[in-house]
């Protein structure tokens, strides 16, 4: 559903397996789908994993709609699909069926052979709102169910960067549904503002003219849909004959206003706050694998956390300054005006609040809160560092809690793993497991930025990376590091001795002898940052 060209292919790449437990749903919805489509030649298949990787998929050549049962419920006995009221119990699942029915009834054109992939993608994007608008025109009540799948049509990551292409994707998938009378202008107010910021009002107005014309295209007219897709690309500055493939997000760019507006929309559709919604996404995407072992902290680890906390505290009180404070009682300098005010309050029968005396005291200067992100390379070459850095993650978390520091530890490899979240105080030491590549370094930096606000100058920020620097996408990594550097966030790169080395610009790169040395360097850098702030 989030990638339109994946849920209307001619035939499935891998046939969906049948599930006997969900067969009653397949049977009931097959009997019901003629009501939704006006066609009697369709079959509905419901099973976990059905849909060819999408929540729902329509296969025109097979005349079949597949719905992934995982978007309906955990178990098939949640309700009886033969009863009319079942749709209220599983509105998202039924919305997927209605969406598939809309394509079955109205998406009767196919992409001409030889069409550049980018044009085919745009045409499919435009087809989303066109098909749903036609479905609503035939069956007005179906709008209710189509609204329930908006948080499946788009998802966090649909617009990972602020560029014209991804602004156009949100415009086609969300703003066009307003003119299709599925969503309202109020629903997408923030999306419209973000898209306008990225591409401007004139281009958005031209895109709207295109999708409104698409809504009038005949169900079989592929030529017009491709022509409109070509106009769409022209508006966004894309030459489909030179740039035939679908544009991809620049991994070296941080998410921007598009992503923020989309997250706010999805949170409101879910009925929770954006912060809670992001927490749910983090838990689903970045939680450590359940099979990673956990161990109780040793006395040595507990002592190390206390020592680091003491060092941080001392750094925060370094170079005390003389400040003047008011007080009710001597010693100190008598302030005549305050003394008269205190006498007047007492004479009026009030409790004196004036402070007649002033004295000097030594206090530490205010220090900014240190936001520390530790990024750990989980590729196979870093196996000797796993145990010590697992211990360090626990130590930093507990020391930070006492020292008014916010820290997080994130692993990057084949996936991004949040080992210790900000303000976390794990009871046990999570033993990270090594293996795989370094594909997700940029994702790990973006996650750290999301958690700690690394690009915002209101805090003291430090990123410490423990890695040999042999990353899969070095140009993107350099771009994202440079962005942090320009934002005032220091990047400390700890390179293990004896490994082939790649040094990134805009970092402080130090070769460390062993894992213990790496942990010590991070602690020293955190303390020095506080002392020098």
Automatic annotation (TrEMBL):
CDD domains the UniProt entry points to: vWFA
Low complexity composition bias: residue spans: 341-358
Region ranges (Disordered): 341-368
Short name of any one Pfam family annotated for the protein: VWA_CoxE
InterPro entries in alphabetical order: Uncharacterised_CoxE (IPR008912), vWFA_dom_sf (IPR036465)
SUPFAM superfamilies documented for this protein: vWA-like
Protein name per the record: CoxE
Natural source organism: Actinoplanes awajinensis subsp. mycoplanecinus
